[in-house]
Amino acid sequence: MFKKLTLVASLALLGACSTVPITGRRQLSLVSDSEINTLAATQYREVIAKGPLSNNSQQVAMVRTVGQRIQAAVERYFQQQNASDQLAGYQWEFNVIQDDAQQNAWCMPGGKVAVYTGILPITQDENGLAVVMSHEIAHAVAKHGSERMSQGLVQQLGGQALSAALSTNAPATQQIALQAFGVGSQLGLLKYGRNQESEADHLGLIFMAMAGYNPDGAITFWQRMDSRENQASPPEFLSTHPSNGTRIADIQRELPEARKYYTAR
């Protein structure tokens, strides 16, 4: 009887799949778009409320300009693919959090973006910022948050539906959500996390190119990032991110495709 139930559960998980745009990879999807967008909006409001938000008008204007251009490119891409329904429920927001120690940015499902001031000296200009923001937005439109959330529900809560998990164990579910959205740290599924990062690099190159930013700038950005990283950083196989050397090599292979979408503004 137990084996039969396990088989049924396994078949159900196999059926709960979606497809990543551009790459065509199949991914686990146990959470509906409306559920995860609602949860992300709640978590985003909490993070933004804690802030503190930057009061540097130039920084905020740059982040919102770049974000809105990439947003328009993403919407245009999905419209061209007759897949605009995949962005249903998106309510884009772009905010800058004042934290010079955080060299980071993220995008939650539904287009909720935050950029930390600590990444801006490395991005240097709009094109460098577009590398980072297009990568983070790619995580959202590739539904990596939903995929990570689904994996977390399977690992920690036995594959419970999101609504049931929230009602029975809301704190644990919210922690899974923060990890899934890239706001917290995540252990386990290391190789899969690196695959998602590489996938976001690939999609991000295309989105930034469609937005009129030079995708070749991704190479110089990651070279700058590499020069700043601590030499004591863990080896690649212990990290959820590809090493910068691997990332740069992958981007170099993908640039010819991205350049086809690029028209300088």
What this model shows, in words?
The chain is mainly α and 265 residues long. Helices cover 59% and strands 8% of the residues. The protein contains eleven helices and five strands. It has helices at 2-15, 33-50, 57-80, 120-123, 126-141, 144-157, 162-168, 170-180, 190-210, 217-228, 244-259, and strands spanning 17-19, 26-28, 93-97, 105-108, 112-116. The strands form two sheets. It has a three-stranded mixed beta sheet with strand order 3-5-4, sandwiched between helices. A hairpin with a 3-residue loop joins strand 4 (105-108) and strand 5 (112-116). 35% of the residues are buried. The model is unreliable at 1-15, 184-192 and 234-238 (pLDDT under 50). Belongs to the peptidase M48 family.
Features:
265 residues, mainly alpha, two-stranded antiparallel sheet, 11 helices, globular, disordered N terminus, Mito/Outer_Membr_Metalloprot, metalloendopeptidase activity, protease
Helix content: 55-70%
Please identify the structural class as seen in this structure.
Answer: mainly alpha
Give start-end ranges of low-pLDDT stretches: 1-15, 184-192, 234-238
Distance between the termini: 63 Å
Multimeric state of these chains? single chain
| Rg | 18 Å
What string, H for helix and E for strand, traces the elements in order?
A: HEEHHEEEHHHHHHHH
Q: Give the overall silhouette.
A: globular
